[in-house]
Amino acid sequence: MSIGLDDVIAATTVMSHVDGEAGRLIVRGYELDDLAAKFSFEEVLGLLWSGFHGLPGDDIQAELGRARFEAFQLLQDSLPLPGQLSAIEQLRYLLSALPDSVDVARQPLLAVAATGVFTAAVLRIRGGAAPVAPDPSMGHAHDFLRMLRNEVVPAHHAKALDTYLVTVADHGLNASTFAARTIASTQAGLFSSVVGGLCALKGPLHGGAPGPVLDMLDAIGSEENARAWLTDAVQNGERLMGFGHRVYRVRDPRADVLKRVAKSLREDANRIKFAEQVEAAALGVLADRKKGRVLETNVEFYTALVLEALKLPRESFTMIFATGRVAGWTAHILEQLDGGRLIRPQSQYVGPMPTPGVAAE
Ligand code: ACO
């Protein structure tokens, strides 16, 4: 028995491999550094989906562009958004409205397109503006920022977001991917599986951490305050956001890719310098206070810095994570449907047994 399923292998996959001891992430045969340097988000989609049923044709950028347009048309049927929902709940609501009646072969494309289109639309509506229609001729990351800002997007911003989406596109059997595969294994459909992935992602122990990373930086305020603030937090049983990982026992390789992206974006180098000081202090506090555990920086710490530098609101961070990770969810769903079995583990019953001779009322 393994509570939390540490070290349990529940699927074979050709998608990605997380080597927690070496701090290595391999996506379909490519090291993360190579992937981030050389591939666009669309190329990673092609790589992840290759060999599986439900593939788009050769020009994924054009097909994804057309699918964004289709998603934008479907969006109109779901407006207005329920105002009492948070931003991520509004994205969940919109994705839930994708109909299973869509041609199965188009569903992966539409799910990826819709996550970006709906995220941009939700953020605009929350800012009091109307959603902006997609431009199918653009790259996904570039068009996402254009739909959000409704202005010409500098190429280095588009490139930075594209690298972010590539970096988070897939990561083994993380909680949201496992949730998506479990739902897919019941043959409930691709859109339901993607919604399940999003629901798992939004928790602070998974994809909900980067907004709170910035809250933590704000609360610390200055380098002098860092050690004392972080020590207090750990002593009070709080978790330092952006640190620790179930699989990595060394630094998360995605943190360094994103740190480089954040540095490339910043005109104000002081913010990164301050983040580095807080990071160093946090690692020191965790080493002192959590002896026997190896707690290193994870992907979310520098995710927060990249998305902040792109002037994206904190409430959007998990949605933008989903905009990248939906690539991995759809690929794993296709893989699960291609010969996978129903995922149905067992639990160990630790409740009372019926008392002989005592009938239930
Ligand atoms: N800050 C303080 N203590 C921590 C942290 C942290 N960030 N991470 C783990 N610990 C401590 C726990 O309190 C626990 O201590 P204890 O044994 O004294 O009680 C010990 O380390 C083990 O904790 P577990 O929860 O069993 O470790 P797990 O492998 O399940 O944790 C997790 C992984 C959930 C990511 C954890 O490190 C965490 O909560 N981090 C903060 C939130 C975060 O950054 N989430 C994003 C993760 S990356 C991603 O999903 C994309």
Please tell me the total number of domains.
Answer: 2
Q: Pairing-aware structural class of the strands and helices? A: mainly alpha
String of helices and strands: EEEHHHHHHHHHHHHHHH
Looking at the structure, the CATH topology of the largest domain is: Citrate Synthase, domain 1
Strand content: under 5%
How are the strands of the largest sheet arranged? 1-2-3
The CATH homologous superfamily name of the largest domain equals Citrate Synthase, domain 1
- Determine Rg (CA atoms, Å): 21 Å
Q: How would you characterize the largest beta sheet?
A: 3 strands, antiparallel
What is the end-to-end distance?
34 Å
The general outline is globular
Q: What's the architecture of the largest domain in CATH terms? A: Orthogonal Bundle
